[in-house]
C-alpha cells in the first residue's frame, strides 16, 4: 500500500512538474533591460517554464499590451505605471527597482547655447506623455515654482524624440536610460539636470491580475532569478554591458556608462516603496495629469516579497 501511495505521489509530482514546464510567461522588456542581465548572469539556464520576451521602446506601449492581456509581466517606471493605474489598466506592481537618479535627465545637444534648466523657459522639451521623463519635467517645474505653461512640452515616443532632438526641432529632451547614456557617450550631449533630489528613481516589475492568480509560482521564480541577476550585475558591469550591447546592437561603452552609475537592484514592495509611489501619484494629481486620487497600497502586491528576498540572498 505504501508503495502504491509512493508511486501515486511520484506520478502526481511528475505531472505537476510537466504542467509547470509547459507554462509560458510572457514578459515585456524595455531595450533588453531584464533579458540581458538574466542571460549575462546565467540565471536562465534551468528555468522550468518558458519565457517569451517581447521588446518595447518605452513603458506606454508595454502597459497597453499588459492592459490588452498580451503580456503577463513587464518592467516600467513609476510614472507611467501611475498613469496607467489612473486609467484603470489592470496591472499591479509586484517588485520594486531602485537605482540612482543619474539615468533620468534633461539633455541638450553639445553645441546648445542653453546652459541650465532656467534657460528652458519658453523652450521646447521632448518627452513621452506620462513617462518618467514627463515626471522629471513636472518635478523640476514645481521645484522652481513654475507652471507647465512656462515650457513647451512636446510629447513624442523615444524614436521620434531622438529625431526631433537631433534636427533641432526641440531644444531639449527629457529621457531615461539607455537613451541618456547613448546621447552622452556617442554624441556628447550635456545634462542640464537629473532626477537626483527630484524624483525617487523608482521603477516596477508589474503583472496583470490574471497572471498573479494563474502564474504566481512562475512569477515568484522569475522575480527570484531577476533579483539574483541584478545582484550579480552590481559586481559584473563589464559582462552585463557586453551582453546588453550584443542584444541591442549598441557599442558596449553605452551600457557600461549607464550600468556603472545606476547601481540597479530589485527590492521588495515595502512601506518605503508605497510612500515613494504615493509621492508620484500626488505629483501627477497636482499637475492635473491624472484626475483621481489613488492609494499606492491598492495598486501594489506584496505577495512576492519572499521570492525577492531569496533572490537577494536574505
Quick rundown:
This protein has 314 residues and is an alpha/beta fold. The protein has helices at 2-22, 33-41, 59-67, 78-86, 132-144, 158-167, 179-187, 209-214, 216-233, 237-248, 253-262, 271-286, 305-311, and strands at residues 24-30, 50-56, 73-77, 92-98, 105-108, 124-127, 152-155, 172-175, 190-194, 203-207, 265-267. The radius of gyration is 21 Å and the shape is globular.
Commentary on this structure:
This protein is of the alpha/beta class. The chain has two domains: 24-99 and 201-311, D-Maltodextrin-Binding Protein, domain 2, CATH 3.40.190; 104-194, Periplasmic binding protein-like II (D-Maltodextrin-Binding Protein, domain 2). 47% of the residues lie in helices and 18% in strands. The protein contains 13 helices and eleven strands. It has helices spanning 2-22, 33-41, 59-67, 78-86, 132-144, 158-167, 179-187, 209-214, 216-233, 237-248, 253-262, 271-286, 305-311; strands at 24-30, 50-56, 73-77, 92-98, 105-108, 124-127, 152-155, 172-175, 190-194, 203-207, 265-267. A six-stranded mixed β-sheet has the order 2-1-3-10-4-11, with helices on both faces. It has a five-stranded mixed β-sheet with strand order 7-6-8-5-9. Strand 1, helix 2 and strand 2 (50-56) form a beta-alpha-beta unit. The protein starts with a helix and ends with a helix.
